[in-house]
Amino acid sequence: MIIDFTLNAYKSLLQDLQKNAYVFFTFEEYCTQKSECKAKQKLVILRHDVDLKPENSLQTAKIENQLGIKATYYFRVIPDSNNPDIIKSIAALGHEIGYHYEDMSLYNGDAEKAIKHFEKQIEYFRQFYPVKTICMHGAPQSKYDGKDLWKKYDYHDFGIIGEPYFDTDFSDFFYITDTGRMWDGYNVSVRDKIPVHQDRWISQGLVYHYTKDICKAIDLGTFPKRMMITTHPQRWTNNTIEWMRELLLQNVKNVIKFLIKRMKKSISSLH
Q1: pLDDT of the chain, 271 residues: tens digit per residue
Q2: Strand stretches in 107-219, DSSP E
Q3: Of 29, 101, 42, 108, which Cα lies nearest the Cα of 72?
Q4: Fewest Cβ atoms closer than 10 Å to its Cβ: which of 4, 10, 36, 184?
Q5: CA dist 14 → 9, 11, 17, 135 (Å)
Q6: What are the chain's domains?
Q7: pTM score, whole prediction
């Protein structure tokens, strides 16, 4: 069995990217420094979705800080993600903090209640950092897509300048995420994917399963030069017991997400 998704593996990935002349931007920097981004030949927008276990995010934030890297950390409002002390610590390390919103799911699709909740959470997270970007939480168990909130409202009205799924040029940037505890988990992902471009990337052979596959491609010079990398730090640990627990839990989740996708596809085919 290949041991992947350890903090050691994560650090090696970052070091490999640095060794091969990639530079790192937060998502806020990408939104505010477009001309500088265009001038960079090799660029990584580094994003973390803090779904659970915020203490793991503090560990990845410390590793990045040691390497001189800044990243973006999106926190949910639920207690399993929202730890004020950890948010403060990550911000103090120079990282960007943003809101990992799921207001439509929390309010069962009631957009009016959801937007009021959204505004309160933006104010809350701005205690720790001058939040300028947000990112949708996939919430695979929910029938509500968080991004649908912006069919009725405009996040720019709340001082937000960017949302990765709306404001990243994926014709220029490759997207890779550890959803499903693998780097090619788009088949089990309900919402954390870029459907318009995914087939093109697959046809180009840009498919990686393990972290070592990415590192090999980086060293060979075949990995894309411009990308957004998204991780969920709860999956990354050097603790053996936690590592095994996350592996087993994610395997169960992947089956559930696969069944949800099949069910949605079957329902849509009936209409």
Answers
A1: 689 999 999 999 999 999 999 999 999 999 999 999 999 999 999 999 999 999 999 999 999 999 999 999 999 999 999 999 999 999 999 999 999 999 999 999 999 999 999 999 999 999 999 999 999 998 888 899 999 999 999 999 999 999 999 999 999 999 999 998 999 988 777 778 898 899 999 999 999 999 999 999 999 999 999 999 999 999 999 999 999 999 998 888 777 766 655 665 565 565 5
A2: 134-136, 174-177
A3: 29
A4: 36
A5: 9, 5, 5, 22
A6: 7-270 (3.20.20)
A7: 0.93
